[in-house]
Amino acid sequence: MRLADVRRQLRLAALPASALALAATGALRRARGEDPDAVRQDLRARNAARTRSTLGGLKGGALKAGQLLSTVEALFPSDPEDTWREALTALQEGNRALPFAEVEPVLRAELGDGWRALFASFEEAAAAAASLGQVHRAVWADGRQVAVKVQYPGVREALAADVRTISAVSRLAALVARGLALPPLVAELRDRLTEELDYEHEARTQERFAVAYDGDPDVVVPHVVRATPRVLVQQWLDGTPLAQVARQGSQAERDRAAARYQVFLVSGPERVGLLHTDPHPGNFRVLPDGRLGVLDFGSSLALPGMPATFGRLIGALLGDDPDLVLARLREEGFVRPGVDLDVRKLVDYMAPFTVPARHERFRFGRDWLRGEFGRVNDPRDPDFGVALQLSMPAEHLFTHRVWLSMVGVLCQLEAEVPVRPVLQRWLPGF
């Protein structure tokens, strides 16, 4: 193993260790008579800042995991300063870019020694820094405003190291929760992350979306101008980051953006034959005319329409027939042969996903999501153990992850959107 990989793993391992150390420090400070609320807020801020700094600095799979967490930041402890919310939201776009001198060799290797001649102008200061690459604003030789995504040097090796770490952690977790079928899930995760390293693959995916949504009144997908394995040039989109809309937008603006975000994610499989599987807010912009711009297509899953069995399962969970629910679960491979399951407890456990589907329109919010997950994910709750009896088939990993992320982002937006009509239109079998 490379020394750099060992250092990455040590930095990741230091996060829980430092959290424990902070907790011990807090106990000592409270024992000395310091104000408990002040101590708690200080430790929360330090822990959140350290997490943001570590994941943002490591980039690669570590930052990708942090961005995934940012979609469900409503589940983290709340406080008046929104400590965790601000830290996780910053992982979507507020990461430190590499100096241009470190990424310029990638441009030269991918586009040739005369790469600058392809552009009328090129801004060396990065406009954004993501998990696998950073974006520079430029003007293509024909005058088009473009975004140039340049892959970080060495990120392939870093991502491989992160996947090995995740794999090792999953094997340990499987000893505790044997029904979770974690190794296939990690294999699926590895395949999807590896695809994200191939910008030519991303370009082909993005063009399929761009063609499918050309002229759409609600969604804009920029066309690709040029792509190589490590450089992607696409049309530039001006707009307001979705996370900023969540913080500062009016209720009407948040509702409109949320409705378009939801429909884009669930309609992609039918319209394009692909599921967009990286729905964190940093990948979306609200354009000046109100349309939703989608920027990143590195992670996607070939899916010719949402699975009908998925729709039937959600529909069954909404009913009052435990036998039908159990039959659907067995059909989908969520319950292994011979395993008995208390279906009514499972219905309660799945409430955060199914409750909105009972309504024509539903108001999503942090308090609602935190309350639902706080109830059903408490190990002291009798319903908690029922989830450990499920076996998640690998092919459903990203469908369910996108669903959870979508709910989390809708809650960040505190938005009221149509639900049943959208599911009836885009979710076969519902």
Descriptive overview:
This protein has 430 residues and is α+β, with helices and mostly antiparallel strands. Strands 1, 2, 3, 4, 6 and 7 form a six-stranded antiparallel beta sheet that branches. Strands 5-11-10-8 form a four-stranded mixed beta sheet. The protein has a two-stranded antiparallel sheet with strand order 9-12. It has a domain at 3-93. The protein contains 17 helices and 14 strands. Helix 2 (36-58) packs parallel to helix 4. It is globular, with a radius of gyration of 22 Å.
Summarize the structure in short.
The protein has helices at residues 3-31, 36-58, 60-70, 83-93, 100-111, 155-176, 182-196, 199-212, 242-248, 251-272, 308-318, 322-332, 343-349, 351-354, 366-376, 397-412, 420-426; strands at residues 119-122, 128-129, 133-140, 145-151, 219-220, 224-227, 231-235, 240-241, 274-276, 284-286, 292-294, 300-302, 361-363, 416-418. It is an alpha+beta fold.
What is the tally of helical segments? 17
Identify low-pLDDT runs.
169-182
Structural class: alpha+beta
Mean of all residue-level pLDDT scores: 78
Tell me the total number of β-strands.
14
Q: Tell me what portion of residues adopts beta-strand conformation.
A: 5-15%
Largest sheet: 6 strands, antiparallel
Helix share bin: 40-55%
Label the overall shape.
Answer: globular
